Predict the structure.
Amino acid sequence: MKKNKINGRCTKSHILKGLFLSVVIFGANLGHSQGNEASTKADKVSMNGYLMVGINKVPESYNGGFSTYVAAWPLLKEYPGNSFQTGLFGTWMHPSFDIPKPDRKLYNDIEGGLGWWRDTRFATETPKFIMGGVALNFSAWANGPGAGKGRDWDKPKGKYGVAQLSPWVLWPPDGLNLEQGTCGELFGYGYLPLPLIKAKTTTAGKNLPTGDNSWTLFLNTGNFKGPVAFFTPYFFSKPILEEPELAGMFLDTRPAKPNKPVQMETQHIPSVQYTDSNGEVYARLAPTSFPAGPKGESVLIHQMTAYKKSALWDGVKQWLENNGPAVSGAIDPKQAVVHTFKGKAGSSWKLYSKGVPKDQRWPIDWNSMATPVALDSTTFGYKWNKQLVTKTNTKDGQLMTLPEYYHLEKRKDGKPHWVAIQPEEVPAQSGLDKVSFASTDKPLKPYITPEGEESNWKKPGPVAGPFNTKIGDGSTVTYYWYRFVDQPALLNADLSDAEREELQKRVEKLHRKWTKEQEYLPPPRTGELANIDGALIVTPPAGMEVGYVPIVTKQGWEE
């Protein structure tokens, strides 16, 4: 089997062209529960859980969105395949309620962020970014223009939920690529509502309202700044067609909670374990790292900011609706408040094998390795136990690598936990040192949008293209230029022709004034900004600089 190695480095040249089929475990025996019986072979296990950050609250009036800067880095030494799923640090933006609401589950939010997912098809060690809007109780989700729940275009389930706004950025359906080799730089992003689509008293022909919150993704990176795409209000309101009593309960109408959780959610990091003849249990974790600053600390979250709606909305609304003075797009810092960090955090990372009951899933002794700190009042990170965590210098930056080997030991309270140990403390016969976590190569199916001549992708259809470009993850994307309101998402946004034409006029104003070099989000006070993949930054064709957007229709390997 061919193995792809990067020798522990963040690298711009290493690109994997295959998804993980199985962790390569020499002599693997997957039938054992941890610690229940002796084993002479390695068992496949998983590490998952949350790293939770303590953050101070701000007043409830700051309910008009948020922005933040989060570190982007290669969490694993080698991309292990599509069983691997984890986000990096981020947040969940839920609606705020100052009105009575039904006593039932009403989950809807904007989450997403940087990370790797099981449906990622063109992954590398460098994370990607997805938007992650969730409609009522996960009935649909939208990850970006043309990307959402499932792969069946006959059941879109959110794939039409996001409209492309920027005329300068391509959004691949696999996620927004960062520059390969990104290693600790800060990725700035946030969501604020823009008054793009007017509130409606009817939804899909029914006497039900849809709000006017077009929650818009703003980026602040080294090579692109400004709005990229937005969730159509109809994406959030559509469930009221089946449950009309829920009108007004979702993010199309509701403001956002200003006090949000800040966490790193990990669903699976591959690991293996071994039980010796005495019942002692050992485990090995796929090499896992965090970024390192000059003193070895990890800067992970910076300047978590909440906004009042007036920070951007009021001026833009006067400009777009009432021909008021043009607005630069810079968010008013006087209408913002920056959260401070407590310097405290928790961990629920656990190592366990499939099928183990919840009350037998034992935690990693995280506190022995990492100390949470507020590096300043608005910057959170970790300081590391240098006796356990290894500092590695690479050509792209420094990494702090967690211990790979662990032993299951009892705490003072009698409950087991995983304690980091040195490699030589693991029995040689375990075979844990012979485990490879590398992925195997396999041809991947491309993302292909509907090709029927009567589909929204063809009728009225694009005005220029196709164009092809190879991007940093090794895939090639095909894209066309559409008149803004003729893009498929807006043909599926419950808009009349007159509403679409009004929207077109508004966006043309934005395209003329809001360029990709201007400042929008408040700039960071520390660190270096990450770049998005330069191949995703495009120039509109002559005559299409205003009122047109690039829409990706296919992503796959070059044939």
Q: What stands out?
A: The radius of gyration is 24 Å. The mean pLDDT is 91. The chain has four helices and 33 strands.
